[in-house]
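task queued by scheduler; priority normal; single chain, no ligands, no partner chains; default sampling; output format set to structure tokens
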Amino acid sequence: MSIVTMKKLSLLAMKSDKDSIFDALIRTKSVELKRSADIEACTRSDVSLSREKYLAASARAEEYIAYVAEAADNYNALHKGNKSQKIDLPKGSLARPLAEIDFDYFLGFGKNIERIENDITEVAELRQAITANEAALTQKKSELARLQLVENLPHPTTWYKDTDSSVVRLMQINSSEIDALKKLASAYEMVDLQVTGGTDSVTLVVVIAHKSETEFFEQVAVCGLVNCSVVCETLPKIAIEDIKKQIEGLIILNAELNGKVAKYAGNIAEWKVYADYLGLLDAKLSAEGDLASTDTTFVLEAYYPAESEQKVLSAIQEVTSNYTVRCLDIGEDEFAPTLLKNNNVVNKFEGITNMYSPPAYHEVDPNPVMSVFYFIIFGFMVADIGYGLLLLIAGVAATFVIKQQTGVKTMLQLFGMCGLSAIVVGALFGSMFCYQIYTGLVPSPNEYPMVMMIISLMLGIIHICAGIGCKMAVKIKHKQTLAAWLADFPWIITFVSLILAIFNMAMDMAAYEPWANVRLPNIVSQIALYVCLASLAVGVICAGLGSKGILGKVKSSFGSVYGIINYFSDIMSYIRVFGLMLSSALVGSVVNDISAMVMDGGGVGYVFAFIILLVAHLFNLAMGVLSVYIHNGRLQYVEFFGKFYTGEGELFKPFGSVNKYTLIKEEQSF
């Protein structure tokens, strides 16, 4: 089974039973609600304002989860080494990254809302106090930095005032201009210049000039001499000490406030449940807005898997007897969400298709066929026994260590299964960690690149033929059997016979001596060439089957001629299989050569050689797998899916099943 058969539910029930019905449907994990049809004399509730409140509360909860977690991390860093003061953060383990909770506890979590909101409000008030404290601290530090300029003054800055006969100025100048200033001052007999301190970049000076010499201030303006910008009505040293004490007090207060915030780290686990519970309330409210209702009743419509019909109906029946329900089949042209149900091997590959686009409900699921070719192509791109073993170990470890089916676990399991393909292909090449450990059935791509290029292109032809086969299956499903066999099947014959027709030529191009005798009789190649041309002609002539009118049929036939170019362009795309294999093999070979040179030093050289091999091969594997994941997917999306697949489906999402932080401890329906 691939795409599960869905049905549609239409329920008429009492408004007083709405919440109970919602909870019952959520518990089944088998129902996706839809907007009910417009019904005369029925209305819909405007839930937009209420939803905004839930969304705002959820965002606030998540904001303070992150804030308290950060505060706890900072607190632990500040008290590093003091285990008695360490605050334990409730973090998920590798095995169970999500908190597992009971379903009844989750549904009844509403009784904790008031207490949690009070706690979050207390943290918000502490945060405001910390923000105000930090602003004051910043201000005091800025004030302290300004006072550093006048720290060594023997008097307050306001002490420097004019007398009856003299002008007294406390001034500052860039330290690089102080010599020029002294030179100018020496030209005036009644001007006294005293350096009284400053900083590395600014020098503080006291200028005393007779009132008859005030033009001095005009002359030295070009040097950048300006009045001191710092005003201190007390002795600067005393003021500085006072500010330092204030800063010290603010720092202590800040630490105390942050410590109080960090103490809420024990509440994070409950707050995460709260955030998910708010998401559930929002989902219920959204569903309520989609209901057509009267003063006392409502109409609910939903999709569900046909095989879960009894479970869904029983769940409703358990909470109310005042209802009317209809179960309807999905029509040929009706929309329905897509629920995929494949075996434990194929379902690991579903994410690859879903990244492109999930299959539509009425479409053929491409995953069973796509998974086979993704598996094979992955093996050819990696093509190493050692790398395959590492991937297999990672997949097996994820299966047993990670207990919850997370995205990371599924990805590692996918790579683990594909590691088996890499082992098999690596065995054909005799390659282990890019060492040639024996002469394989297929030569090393480093020595005979043409062999692997030919294999890649032939693999591409087979993959494209499979895509055409899937296209035939789609047409047959939609009762276009004649078009499938006459317009599409000839292309499969064309490509298969093409392989046979050029097989001997390919062996000559490979120039691999052990394969020299692997040739087809010439008569087979000749017959294959004629079959190729004949099937190509049939495919072109019959391409218009299903098109309307003679002009449409002719246009389709001419379009198929142009399509030949696209087919061969697609085939050439499979050279990337050879390219990725070769690049990974070359990098690995270079690493092995470098480690061998280091090993020649003996002694400690063996240690460094091992470190080089370990780190470099892990890096080569990581980069190789990333490239393979992308380019292998690209071959599926463009060259394979492009032949038959439309996608644009929507995955089935059970009502109330979307949680970010928690996992409900209850068996999943699928």
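post-processing summary
- The CA atoms of residues 352 and 630 lie 10 Å apart.
- The first helix runs from residue 18 to 28.
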